[in-house]
Amino acid sequence: MAGMAAYPLTVGFDLDMTLIDSRPGIKAAYEELSARTGTHVDAEAAVTRLGPPLEEEIRRWFPAERVAEISALYRALYPEYAIASTPALPGAHEAIAAVRAAGGRAIVVTAKYEPNAKLHLAHLGLEPDAVIGSLWAEAKAEALRDHDARVYVGDHTGDVRGAHTAEALSVAVATGPCDAAELRAAGADVLLGDLTEFPSWLARYVAEGADGTEPSAAATA
């Protein structure tokens, strides 16, 4: 690992359905939004589509001229209704710890409104080195490049696209709305069942790429 000081490792993580199971909290927030507005929102269906920006879901239920207003209301309701009921996914704490143990930095890059993302992380005791919100799919590459992230971990095909746009390795976890076949078809470089598999994969990746070169095929299989 002599090369780590010269080639610091930064790993980016998505938030919803990668580090946290946000479905219970988001469902509760949508149910409250529906009650406040008098407009039916199928919260059960909404939580099967997590990943894209909030506005995409709001457009399904409200007219275009109200999307900004309703999105702002949802974000205001979110801290009270979504934070406490949202657990960390298995392996989330250990994944961040593994990056630190490798001498690296862990960042969160998410489409979620950044203040609410930070509330989730603080509530669960997850402590990344940076949190960047309101970025989706290819737009995530902006933050990944800014932080020199070599790896991006996510659960959605949009996360695969974001990683590749940033010329980072796409590590996909099959814990969200996209199954393993979809993630593989989207071009994920590494496919894991969940984050509990991440520390051992990272150890192989660092061992193969510690001199600053690209990891071997064995490390990315």
From TrEMBL:
Against PANTHER family, the record matches this protein to: 5'-NUCLEOTIDASE, PHOSPHOGLYCOLATE PHOSPHATASE
Organism, per UniProt? Streptomyces nigrescens
Tell me which Pfam families the record gives: HAD
Keywords, in A-Z order: Hydrolase
Name recorded for this polypeptide: Hydrolase
Look up keyword Phosphoprotein and say if it applies.
no
Any one GO molecular-function label of the UniProt entry: hydrolase activity
